[in-house]
Every structure is written in C-alpha cells, then in structure tokens.
Amino acid sequence: MKTFVPYSLLHLVTVCICLLCIVGLVAAGRVLRETHEAGLRRVLGGFGIVYWLSYNLWWNSNGVDLATGLPLQICDVNGVIAPLALLTLQRWLRATLYYWALALSTQAFIQPALQFGPATALFWWFWAQHAIILGYAVFDLAVLGFRPDWRDLGRAYGSGAIYLLVVVPLDLKLGADYGYIGNLAADKIPPFVAGLGPWPARAIIVVGLAALAFVVVQLPWQIGKRRQAA
Q1: What is the dihedral of CA 53, 181, 164, 170, to 10 degrees?
Q2: Structural contact between residues 192 and 111, judged by C-beta atoms closer than 8 angstroms
Q3: For 6, phi and psi rounded to 5 degrees?
Q4: Among 7, 20, 50, 121, which is 20 to 30 Å from 201 by CA?
C-alpha cells in the first residue's frame, strides 16, 4: 500500500498503535521512575536524538533542497526539543515541548499532511517521529511530573516568536512553507491550511490559531488548581 488516505481505516489503526505505544512508554516509566528515572531519561533522550538525526540524514540523502529539506517545520524542531527536554529538564525546553506537542504536533494525528502509505519508508518515519514527540511530552507530564503554568505559556510564546523570526524570512526568500505560513499556491499546501484563505491573511490566521491553542491546553491546569483551592 503506497498511498495514505486521511480518515481511512489505516489512519485510525495507525493512530491507535501510536497511542498504545505512548501508553506503554508511560506505564514503563511509572514503574521504573523510583529506581531508574535518570537512566530512563538518558535512554529516551539519546534515542530521540539519534532518531532525529537519522531521519533528517535519510530525508536529505540525495542532497538538501533548502525549500523543503531543512528541519524547520514545527514538528522537526519539536523532534529535537523533545529529547533535549528529557535529558536536561530545562524549564524552557519542557514548556516548549508541552505546548508545541499538545497544541500543534497533535494535529499530525488528526489531519496528517501525508500521502505515502506503509509500503514506503516515509510513512514509518512520519508516524514514529510524531509518536516520539507526543510520547515524550506525555511522559514528562505523567512520569516526571511537569505541570505547566502561565509563565510556561510565556516561555512557549517566546520560543514561537524566535521560530517565526527564523522561518518567515526563509519562507519569503526560498519560496518555502516552513510553519505552514509560506506564500505557496493552494494546491501545494495541506488542505486544512489552504482552507484558511489566501496569503498573507492565511499566515496570520495560522499564527493566531496556534497562540489560541496554547491557551486552550493551559486551561485544564488552571481549572484544576482552582478546584483544589476551593
């Protein structure tokens, strides 16, 4: 099967398998965290970095196309942030991982920008990378006890601002679509992005929706705090 069709049975089965892998990772982490927490983090962090490097080397094995080959999509950047967050426990990285993973990278599971099926290597690279990102974010919450607050939301916005300062000039100069905010024709971008209208209004809407999504994934923690205080 060389073609992937969103919202098909294959899509459902693939997402379920990814979620089962994440549940297994969290279950193992909760069992081992009292005795092997640091070692487990190092293993996961090392694996994530090796995977990220391997994927990008494979993707550019025939030469780097600057418009498509740079690891500058949100999930590409998050793919290296995720292992570094577990390895260092640095608050800024953990905050960025949480908001970017829960608010943005989850979209790859809901509306994947993928056309290639399981008979191709890209299918496996794509799903494994996104499962790592979401899995590490959930692991940080469920095993390591990370709890985001409003300051973490500010950190994620700061990371997002830096990201935009990098990719907007590159998108304009290279004719690229990093961050899905480039000025490309509608038939060259994912349908869910094309549906937001013409550029540059489309780019502004994408950024606004991302900012709103960050607030949405923060709200459950604030509601939980208020209930505990009541």
Answers
A1: 70
A2: yes
A3: -60, 145
A4: 7
Which residue is it, tokens 């024709």? 185
CA distance 54 to 78: 15
Residue closest to 139 by CA, chosen among 48, 11, 5: 48
Answer for the pair 137, 102: CB distance below 8 angstroms, yes or no.
yes
Residue ranges of the domains in the chain?
9-229
CA–CA separation, 195 and 27 (whole Å)? 39
Provide the 10 A C-beta neighbour count for residue 208. 10
Asked if 71 and 79 count as a contact pair (C-beta separation under 8 A), the reply is: yes
Q: CA–CA separation, 134 vs 74, rounded Å?
A: 13
SS3 106: coil
Q: Is the pTM of this model over 0.90?
A: yes
Which pLDDT belongs to residue 21? 96
- The closest alpha carbon to 152, from 67, 59, 85, 65, belongs to 85
Alpha-carbon dihedral angle through residues 116, 120, 125, 128, given to the nearest 10 degrees: 80
CA distances from 85 to 7, 79, 141, 194 (A): 32, 10, 12, 33
Q: What is the pLDDT of residues 107-166, one digit of tens each?
A: 999 999 888 999 999 999 999 999 999 999 999 999 999 999 999 999 999 999 999 999
